[in-house]
Amino acid sequence: MSFDTTTTNSDSPKPLAAPIWIGDLKIDPPILAAPMAGFTNYPFRQIVREFGGAGLIATEMVNAKGFVWLDEQEATHPDRLWGVADEPRPLAVQIWDNDPPTLAKVGHRLATEYGVSVVDINFGCPVRQVTQKAHSGSYLLSQPERMGQIIEQVVAACHPTPVTAKIRLGCTRDKINAIDIAQVVEGAGAAALTVHGRTAADMFRGEADWDKISAIKPYLKRIPLIGNGDLDTAAKVVSAFERYDIDAVMIARACLNKPWLFAHAAAALRGEPVPEEPTLSEQRELMLHHYRLVCERFGPEKGTVLMRKFACCYAQGRRGARDFRKHVARVTTPEEFQAVVTEFFPRDLVDAMAS
User: Fold this and answer.
1) pLDDT (tens digit, 9 = 90+) per residue, 109-133?
2) Which of 100, 298, 314, 321 has its CA 20 to 30 A from that of 175?
3) Percent of the chain, pLDDT > 90?
4) What is residue 68's predicted lDDT score, i.e. its pLDDT?
């Protein structure tokens, strides 16, 4: 269902959503940053923190089996966990696999050695490599009993660190079982449930069904329900809390070209005026700042290649984005990156007239 993006004015600011508790962890504001493979790395998390507004930030999802293999080889920890030990809290790490003992072992390491705030289990990823090849992610929505075993073992291994789960509505539209799965998740001891409003077969097509997310809430007795899907403006976040029976929201893909979205949404939920969008000049400077952080982490050569996808995100939806993407997709050096940004990144009308 689509959102009504109209907002109402109030004489006095009034918070529209209360903080949530994930175990003993208070999440305020109740806006979570989703784990996204290939994107929510250390530099991107820094950018989100600089803007503020995210009550809980997550790393990229970590393959539990790969983590154990690295440990057995006495190799370094997974690259996706770089910086986690010393990173500001709260911080969630999402793990995936289909073997309860393996997930429990990794969860225990994350809770004790890394001291993360939340261990999240991925039951929502629809990507073929995770589902069909590894029988993990959203594939497990067809196996509620195994999901329960996984959660029970991870909860026991991580105690007292809270364990959460992220799911989709079901595997396919004719096999939507989110209400049943939600009760399994809560019964197995999870501290919160996030639901993306599409099925695995939907991938990211169509609209997220928030009515079906909301329908889950009456079946949860003690844990918060976090809704996810299509939240790309502060107005839509406000609408989600006003129209649906949820406790919190999770923002995913929309933040990749608007990392300030969390701060804008948080202001809206506090009943405060939503700040103006950064100008294109400010967005260009933000992208360059992001690029410097990526290069500090990965080095100039690898950092330049990795930044290409982020740069495309920053330009998304702007006039001239297609031309910029065509050129930035081929850069391999800092000099090339800077030259392409200078010449092709979308500009404000005032900048364009001055050049």
Assistant:
1) 999 999 999 999 999 999 999 999 9
2) 100
3) 86
4) 84
**How far apart are alpha carbons 335 and 271 in whole angstroms?**
44
Q: How far is it, in rounded angstroms, from Cα 2 to Cα 210?
A: 8
Does this model's pTM top 0.70? yes
Q: Which residues pair with 333 in a beta bridge?
A: none
What residues are designated binding site for FMN?
Answer: 35-37, 94, 166, 196, 252-253
Name the burial class of residue 218, with classes exposed (0-12), middle (13-18) and buried (19+) by CB atoms within 10 angstroms of its CB: exposed
Contact 4, 229 (CB under 8 A): no
| Bond before 43 cis per omega within 30 degrees | no
Mean pLDDT of 234-259: 97
Is 125 catalytic? The answer is yes
Taking the C-alpha atoms of residue 76 and residue 158, their distance in angstroms, rounded to an integer, is 22
Residue ranges covered by each domain of the chain: 20-269, 280-354
Annotated binding site: 35-37, 94, 166, 196, 252-253
Q: Which CATH fold topology does 20-269 show?
A: TIM Barrel (3.20.20)
| CATH of range 280-354; options 1.10.287, 1.10.357, 1.10.3470, 1.10.1200 | 1.10.1200
Q: State the Cα–Cα distance between residues 49 and 207, nearest whole angstrom.
A: 28
